[in-house]
C-alpha cells in the first residue's frame, strides 16, 4: 500500500514538528494530525468507522475500524473512558469526561486504530490513555459489573431516577430556603421547622440541609437582635 506508506511518512515528519511532549519526555502526534495525514494520502478510498459498545452511565467503550474499498477491516482500535473522571476531582467540569466522555473515547479509539496501521502518534496508546489506567481501574472496581444489555438499561434508569430526585430535592430546598430567609423571629423559625418536621423526615438529605439552613438563620437573627439591643443601649446612654 504505497498510499499508506505515504501517510506513515507524513506522520513521521509531523511527529518531529507537531509532537506534543508527554511524561518522560516522549512526544505524541495528536489524532487530528494523523487523521489529516491519513486522508491526505488515502483520500476517501478508506473509511474510518466508530461504534459505541458500552455506555452504562459509568463506562464508555468505543470501537474504531478502518475499512478498504471492498469494506474489509484492515485496522481496529478500542478505547474506554470513565464518566466524570479525569485529572481533577470527579465531576469537575474541567475533566473532559464530565461532559464529553463519548467524544474523548472516540478520539482515542481512532488514534489506536490508526496506530494499528502504523500511523502512530509515537506510542501505541493514545495521549494520556495509559496514564489514566490506574484511575479507571479504581472506579471500575467499585462498580457492579454489567453482564447484559438489560443490566445496562436498569443501571441507566437508576441513574436517571437519582438525577431526577436530586433535582427535585434541590428545587424544594431552594423553595424552603427562600422562606427561611424571610423569617425574622426565632419563634417563627421554630414553628416553621416543627410544621414541616414530619414531611422532611421522609428525605434525610433534604432534612439535614434544612436543619443547617435553620441553624444559620437562627444565628443571623440572634446577631441582628443583639445589634439592635446594642444600638438602643447606646442611644439611651447618649441621651442620658
Count of individual helical segments? 8
Number of strands: 5
The average pLDDT is 77
The overall number of domains is 2
Write up what this structure looks like.
- By secondary structure, the protein is α+β, with helices and mostly antiparallel strands.
- The protein is built from eight helices and five strands.
- It has helices at residues 2-18, 31-42, 96-99, 101-116, 133-141, 149-181, 186-200, 204-239; strands spanning 20-21, 27-28, 47-55, 59-67, 73-82.
- The longest helix has 36 residues, at 204-239.
- The chain is elongated, with a radius of gyration of 29 Å.
Per-chain topology:
Elements: H1 2-18, E1 20-21, E2 27-28, H2 31-42, E3 47-55, E4 59-67, E5 73-82, H3 96-99, H4 101-116, H5 133-141, H6 149-181, H7 186-200, H8 204-239
Antiparallel strand pairs: 1-2, 3-4, 4-5
Helix pairs in contact: 1-2, 2-4, 6-8, 7-8
Write a compact overview of the structure shown:
The chain has 240 residues and is an alpha+beta fold.
Q: What key phrases describe this protein's structure?
A:
2 domains; two-stranded antiparallel sheet; 59% helix; alpha+beta; 3-stranded antiparallel sheet; 240 residues
